[in-house]
Specification:
With 1533 residues, the protein is of the alpha+beta class. It is built from 44 helices and 59 strands. The strands form 17 sheets. It has a 6-stranded parallel beta sheet with strand order 1-12-9-5-3-4, with helices on both faces. Strands 2-59-58-57-24 form a 5-stranded antiparallel beta sheet, with no helix packed on it. A 5-stranded parallel beta sheet has the order 14-15-16-13-17, with helices on both faces.
């Protein structure tokens, strides 16, 4: 390694006759522990760092799984990552205090705090413990507070974080090729890794590297280098300029443009000194006057317009002619430079020699020196190298020497040598190197000469050390807003966007006046601005923000440009940031007062009474802890939003602007806009913008009109409490507006147009009527017009009158100049990239694309197979204005600046298989496939296949122990878009516990869930992969609330899933493979064998054609085989409806099980002639156009399949019979004497399906009707002496409750049909278990479908008896408090019982266990001694009930029903749905047995017996509840 000087600023001269001393590296001794052993390669150092830091991160995640281990009464274990100490002792474990030893009593009183687990610390100052972060100046905090209140002054720009290390590399091309190649292979990857650790973006800019062909520059090197030197010096967050000076000065540069006054003065002088020929043959030929520039200039013509062969070679072109053109241009360039230098010297003006006489390298150095930092850390660095004896030995091989030194023929160019000496003297170099010149080995040959190799290693070591130290100094010099105030960091990015939009806004005075009138009108609260894409909606809202900030300083101004940052892309993030901003701007004290008033007002409301009755969380619970505002749950954020807006008052109003509502992500169904409040509090104004419905899949504007009725509409109902809105459609541009915009653009760019050109542009823009067209036409075409461009040449034509057509024309021209493969792939990658691509990322991806490299390096073998940086730079130049930089997850990524541009690129570059190839390449990049592996390619020079490393950034899952957010946010998405193979890779990634843990830790849980939803909805989804994906998705969705606040608990939650879970198996393997000895967690010892989750959830809106309008309040259900019928009332219009499913065909679709095949769906009508609405063979629903006449509106319906299952009877006040497979209508029967208000509540079919028996309830409870099943004629009506309430129905039996005599009465419908008068069909069972049973009696009785079993509450109310009513004897007893039961249900064979407790949280399933056959007769239950022995019921498992607050009709008792097939159980679901459970996959939610590796914790059982919601386990993951839980006693085993 190089010498470690005391200061990187001091110059050190080094010879190479002896080995250099070892580098001490004081700052990086800990960061690069392996650097001493890998002195020849920086890659080995950072790769070793990566492996160590990943191990540290794994241990950190594992150690931080405190879970219930927070029982320990000590401070938290060390979980933050201190890299400097971790690398010294990576096997260190948590310090466990001796005070945490367990008391040795048999019971221990403990409080389990489930929420106070330590958060992982991911900030760079933690990852690099030795980096000291500066304190935040008070003035910056004051600026941040003003920003959050709505300040838009230039002061807020101080909060903008500079996160790009943009390093310009200045050197001559040929003599420093070895150094620059080694920088690319060795130093740049190292610095990229360091910047990744610091959440910075490293962007080296070397315009000469790998630029093998001079034509690639298009003779604009002079202006291009000046632009990028200026860009680097002004915007870099660290070192900005790195100069490498060798023994070559370089050719004098030729300016691309010269002021007309200077050019004409020089030409006049040259003509007066007998150089008229030079003027006529050189200056007049190569320079043309452009009066469109302000002031006018002479512009250097493109070389290919005069020398066509100079253009880059294309397939089929003559490479010899191109090579000759290149040589001719070098000579012409030298002549031009000499002539210009003579003219400049004659003028004698200051600075003329720098503009006309110096080399490009000197100009770069001088420009950078003039801009280098004088107040902060150094940002200019220079290395100088001298080749010893090259001048003395130049005659030995002039051609070789000419590669490293300036030559004039076969002699040294003395003038160039003198200029180089002057340049060296004016540059303060950080390192000097003296290297021996050896012609015998090829001049400078590190591969063949040890001294040269030693020099190159030292050069790279010194460059790495000096630049890395500079990065760290800059990093520690200025605080980053994103660290000390992430909210301000988010808001300032929107402020920058607003200022950029307003800076180019001109015209539209009528629109602005209307906007101001609305903002000044206290009686108007909502303004909706709409119009087609490109009409200028964003700029109008930006001007509104500017107006409010200027005229209403007392108002709190909140604005979001939706989609421009990660935290403004979805409703959850938007609500969180807005609530945070309002609470910060108005103060926590004011927020607490507002919340207190809201809670007090809600305490006496109907909503509060409903919440108290159903267990639904009230407003206070939703808002949560105000000291940790805002809430974490989505429901809490929705509740908090209007509360935060409610802090507005007369003195301090609130103005909220949301631009681009139609651009919001569909996560959480945000496009439905349910997160917007229907009614705004007083003194709040809301301004939103959206596109018209025809351009959207979800009609945002239509939804807005529903939420906020049009103030001027005659149809607006004044009784509706919603806030009304003003709707404003943005009109098209007028010709005056176009002219005003164009004037402003010309002024900004210091350009003008000829009258003809201006008229053409105005005409095209007026025809387009879009401001976007004016700006795009100017940036891409018109601003490049010269005053001499009369017959506009190809590539500068303005033919199209639409933005897409305009961009298509420009792309055609760019592809012709830069190469079709390069442009199409580069823009394809930028378009497809989910989170955009930074400059470095795009270069990396292109460097792995062989189609691109084959085109670029045609006929040339580069020393390193990477894309030349100049090509990427030129692409960005060509499309400047169409691409925009945005900070996304730590990098400055490039995006299309407008959706219209993106659509053009999608249609042009992402069609069919091309899209799959592009996404596949991006997936490979984010997976790091080629980071360490050479890639195969075909060498066209040697005509053979080779492999080469591409030296791209290593996109590891973890970067120095922190999640790689860029990879996590992009990888799966691109894999899913990569076809069938990509889906398989995505499935593997989504089942990688490490990936899931890192994503949760990075705060990307919602993004992860969206990836699962996308994967499960793919048609390419493989059946073999779906069950595992569904298992993972259910786990994440069920654990979402916990992981949103405690993401580091993912592994332990996954490991505690049921034993058959692939998630649990993978999690436990991950634990064993990573840190089995250091993972402290609570392990569930008695985990259930099966998932214990529904296999399907059935909804009235399921199936093709279903909409939320078809949702049902289910009042009746029945099964036959695998078919399930549901009947009830539609929530939308109160009409009766029925749905038929086949659960034998279930498609997995995420949590809550899959979706069953829809067989039919109808609107139930009891009219005499109706057709049904059925599903055809493909599941498509056919509508019969039923007008609803004769419907049973809002009458609870019941239903029953016939015994054969080919018919279904539905009853309300009449009976309707349908086909059991397709709902084909069979007939209707009516009981004309049925008392008003009475409803049929029970149905049974007789043997052979000949008759139907119905029982009604109401004024005549127990009224029986016997119907003919063919003619639907009423055969007999049977009235009872005593009221009998129908409470149960089965295969052939109806059950009634006789409250007056405390009897349970069974009716055999077959015997009834044969002899209705005998009364033999009735059996009476006394039942005095409860004097006041529930109205429906479901908690007291249950009948088996086929077996002659009835379950009835015992007289003492302490259990149930299973009775064989045919044999008239008890069979088994089930001990249970009857009063705590809501419902019991028997299986088809009577051998299983489902018990629904009153709280309805967990439904227990028990199985019949008959007495031991050795001690009794199994058929009679009589023991050998003659005593009757009753069987018992054993616990088989449980299924999850439903929270009453989510049941559509909270007053209706939840239902539980065994299917007739005996394979499934049906239970009440959320919002009118039915859950289907597999009886062979029951869970166990009763107790939790755990063990832990913490020696101080007892091993034991945690009983879950409390009815409190906070003491239950999570419904889907058996994980700890969200709320803090006190478990009364912990039994020690």
């Amino acid at each position: 390694m190089g010498n470690a000087s005391s200061s990187s600023q001091g110059a050190v001269f080094r010879g190479f006759d002896a080995a250099p001393p070892r580098d001490q590296r004081p700052l990086f001794a800990q960061l690069l522990a392996a650097a001493d052993e890998a002195r020849s390669s920086r890659r080995a150092a950072y790769l070793h760092l990566q492996s160590l830091s990943n191990h540290v991160y794994n241990n950190r995640i594992l150690r931080s799984q405190k879970s219930a281990a927070s029982i320990l009464p000590t401070e938290s274990p060390r979980s933050s990552l201190n890299l400097s100490s971790s690398l010294d002792d990576t096997d260190a474990t948590d310090d466990v205090s001796e005070t945490a030893t367990t008391r040795s009593t048999s019971t221990v009183d403990v409080e389990v705090d489930l929420m106070d687990e330590p958060e992982p610390v991911n900030s760079p100052q933690t990852a690099l413990g030795f980096v000291r972060r500066p304190p935040v100046p008070p003035e910056l905090r004051e600026v941040a507070m003003r920003l959050l209140k709505g300040d838009l002054s230039d002061d807020v720009l101080k909060l903008v974080d500079r996160t790009v290390i943009r390093l310009f590399i200045s050197s001559t091309a040929s003599d420093t090729e070895w150094e620059r190649n080694t920088l690319v292979k060795d130093v740049w990857p190292y610095l990229s890794k360091l910047c990744q650790i610091l959440d910075l973006d490293f962007e080296p800019i070397d315009l000469k590297w790998n630029a093998f062909d001079a034509s690639i520059h298009e003779n604009k090197e002079w202006d291009r280098s000046a632009y990028w030197v200026t860009e680097a010096m002004e915007s870099s967050a660290g070192p900005a300029f790195f100069s490498i000076l060798g023994d070559m000065y370089g050719l004098p540069g030729i300016p691309a443009s010269i002021l007309a006054s200077e050019f004409e003065a020089m030409a006049t002088h040259l003509r007066s000194t007998n150089r008229s020929r030079d003027v006529s043959e050189l200056l007049d030929v190569w320079y043309s006057l452009d009066k469109n520039a302000t002031p006018p200039v002479y512009v250097l013509r493109p070389v290919h317009t005069i020398m066509p062969a100079f253009a880059r070679s294309t397939p089929g072109s003559d490479p010899t002619s191109h090579a000759e053109a290149l040589k001719a241009w070098v000579q012409l360039r030298a002549r031009l430079a000499a002539v210009l230098r003579i003219g400049a010297v004659a003028l004698g003006q200051s600075g003329m020699s720098l503009r006309y006489g110096c080399s490009l390298t000197e100009r770069e150095v001088v420009l950078a020196q003039s801009m280098k930092s004088t107040t902060g850390p150094e940002n200019f660095y220079g290395f100088q190298r001298t080749l010893l004896d090259i001048k003395r030995k130049i005659g030995d091989n002039p051609a070789l020497s000419g590669t490293y030194i300036d030559m004039a023929g076969n002699q040294i160019d003395k003038e160039a040598s003198q200029e180089l000496a002057k340049l060296r003297s004016r540059v303060r170099a950080n390192r000097f190197y003296a290297v021996p010149w050896r012609i015998e080995v090829g001049g400078l040959a590190p591969d063949n000469d040890k001294h040269h190799g030693q020099y190159l290693r030292s050069f790279c070591d010194d460059a790495a050390r000096i630049l890395a130290e500079s990065i760290l100094r800059h990093y520690s010099h200025r605080p980053f807003t994103r660290e000390w105030d992430p909210l301000a960091g988010e808001v300032v990015r929107h402020a920058v966007g607003v200022k950029q939009l307003t800076s180019v806004f001109r015209g539209r005075r009528d629109i602005l006046q209307s906007m101001r009138e609305f903002l000044d009108n206290p009686n108007q609260q909502v303004l909706v601005v709409y119009g087609p894409s490109g009409v200028g909606k964003s700029s109008i809202l930006a001007k509104a923000a500017e107006y409010v900030a200027a005229t209403q300083p007392q108002a709190t101004l909140v604005y979001r440009l939706i989609g421009t940052t990660p935290d403004s892309s979805d409703s959850r993030s938007i609500l969180r940031s807005i609530c945070s901003q309002l609470s910060r701007a108005r103060g926590l004290a004011e927020l607490k007062l507002k919340v207190a008033s809201v809670v007090e007002a809600a305490a006496s409301s109907v909503a509060a009474e409903f919440a108290a009755a159903t267990g639904e969380p009230g407003i206070e619970a939703l808002l949560g802890d105000l000291d940790a505002w805002p809430p974490t749950s989505y429901e809490g954020l929705q509740a908090a939003f209007p509360v935060a807006l409610g802090m507005a008052d007369y003195m301090k109003p609130i103005v909220l602007l949301l631009d681009g509502l139609d651009e919001i992500s569909d996560d959480d169904d945000a496009k439905d806009l349910t997160w917007l409040p229907d009614s705004l509090p007083p003194f709040v104004k809301l301004v939103v913008s959206t596109a018209p419905p025809k351009s959207q899949k979800v009609p945002t504007l239509t939804i807005l009109r529903t939420i906020y009725p049009d103030l001027e509409s005659e149809e607006t109902d004044p009784a509706v409490p919603n806030t009304c809105a003003v709707y404003f459609e943005v009109p098209a541009l007028s010709e005056d507006d176009v002219s005003e915009i164009l004037n402003h653009l010309q002024l900004l760019d210091k350009r003008t147009l000829t009258d003809t050109q201006r008229a053409q542009l105005i005409a095209k823009s007026t025809s387009s009527q879009m401001p976007l067209y004016v700006h795009t036409a100017w940036r891409l075409v018109a601003s490049k017009w010269s005053s001499s461009d009369t017959a506009l040449s190809s590539g500068r034509r303005l033919d199209s009158e639409t933005v897409p057509g305009l961009l298509e024309d420009v792309l055609d021209s760019v592809e012709q100049r830069l190469g079709s493969a390069f442009v199409s792939k580069a823009l394809g990658y930028l378009t497809a990239a989910r989170q955009g691509l930074s400059h470095a990322e795009l270069s990396d991806v292109l460097s792995c694309d062989e189609d691109v490299l084959t085109e670029v390096f045609r006929g040339f073998e580069p020393p390193i197979r990477r894309i030349p940086p100049i090509l990427v730079v030129r692409l960005f130049e060509e499309l400047r204005g169409c691409l925009v930089e945005r900070q996304f997850y730590g990098v400055n990524a490039y995006f299309w600046s407008h959706r219209q541009f993106k659509r053009v690129a999608e249609d042009r570059y992402l069609f069919r298989d091309r899209a799959i190839a592009v996404h596949s390449a991006l997936a490979d990049y984010w997976e790091g496939k080629w980071a360490k592996t050479p890639k195969l390619y075909y060498d066209s020079v040697s005509k053979s296949q080779k492999t080469a490393l591409r030296y791209i950034m290593d996109q590891s899952l973890l970067i120095s122990g922190k999640p790689n957010t860029r990879r996590l946010a992009s990888l799966v998405w691109h894999q899913l878009e990569s076809g069938v193979t990509g889906f398989q890779e995505a499935a593997r990634t989504l089942q990688d516990i490490g990936h899931l843990a890192a994503a949760a830790d990075a705060g990307l849980l919602s993004d992860l869930l969206a990836s699962f939803r996308s994967a499960l909805s793919r048609e390419s989804a493989e059946a073999l992969l779906l069950p595992q994906l569904v298992d993972y998705y259910r786990f994440l969705l069920g654990s979402a609330d916990i992981l949103s606040t405690n993401p580091h608990r993912l592994v332990s939650l996954a490991a505690n899933l049921y034993q058959g879970s692939a998630v649990a198996s993978d999690a436990r393997r991950w634990i064993s493979a990573n840190a089995a000895s250091t993972f402290n967690w609570l392990e569930w010892q008695n985990r259930p064998l099966a998932r214990g989750e529904p296999i399907a959830t059935l909804r009235g809106s399921d199936g093709p054609g279903g909409t939320p309008l078809d949702s049902l309040v289910v009042t009746g259900r029945d099964t036959h085989g695998e078919r399930v019928a549901m009947v009830g009332v539609r929530t939308f219009d109160g009409r009766a409806g029925a749905v038929l499913f086949d659960t034998a065909e279930i498609r997995a679709a995420g949590t809550g099980g899959g979706t069953a095949r829809l067989l039919a769906r109808i609107v139930v009508s009891f009219a005499r002639s109706r057709n049904s609405v059925i599903a055809d063979a493909d599941g498509e629903v056919q509508d019969n156009g039923d007008d609803g006449e004769g419907e049973e509106e809002e009458v609870p319906l019941t239903c029953a399949f016939s015994r054969r299952g080919d018919q279904l009877a539905i009853a309300g006040r009449a009976i309707l019979v349908l086909g059991g497979f397709d709902f084909a209508r069979r007939g209707v029967g009516r009981d004309p004497d049925l008392p008003p208000g009475d409803v049929i509540t029970a149905i049974a079919w007789t043997k052979g399906d000949g008759c139907i028996v119905t029982a009604s309830d109401g004024e005549e409870p127990g009224r029986l009707v016997l119907w003919d099943a063919d003619s639907f004629a009423l055969l007999r009506i049977i009235r009872t002496q005593y009221p009998r309430q129908p409470v149960a129905a089965s295969y052939a039996t109806l059950g009634f409750w006789d409250e007056y005599r405390s009897l349970f009465i069974l009716l055999d419908v077959d015997e009834l049909a044969e002899d209705a008068e005998s009364g033999l069909s009735l059996q009476y069972i006394p039942c005095k278990a409860h004097t006041d049973p529930p109205p429906d009696g479901k908690s007291r009785f249950a009948i088996a479908h086929r077996a002659p079993y009835v379950l009835i509450a015992s007289d003492d109310g302490k259990g149930y008896l299973l009775i064989d009513f045919k044999a008239k004897r008890p069979v088994a007893r089930m001990t249970m408090d009857v009063d705590s039961v809501q419902q019991v249900a028997l299986s088809h064979d009577g051998r299983k019982v489902a018990v629904v407790p009153s709280e309805n949280k967990v439904i227990f399933v028990l199985g019949l266990q008959l007495p031991d056959p050795s001690g009794s007769n199994p058929s009679t239950g009589v023991s050998k001694s003659g005593e009757n022995q009753l069987g018992t019921f054993r616990h088989l498992g449980s299924v999850l009930g439903v929270d009453p607050s989510t049941v559509e009709d909270a007053g209706t008792a939840a239902s539980c029903l065994f299917s007739r097939s005996g394979n499934t159980i049906l239970t009440e679901g959320e919002f009118g749905s039915i859950r289907v459970w597999d009886v062979n996959e029951l869970g166990d939610h009763s107790t939790l047995r755990f063990k832990t590796l913490l020696p101080s914790l007892p091993q034991g059982l945690v009983p879950v017996s409390s009815s409190s919601a906070s003491n239950t386990l999570s419904a889907a993951t058996w994980s700890w509840a969200l709320r803090r839980t006190r478990l009364g006693r912990l039994w020690v085993l």
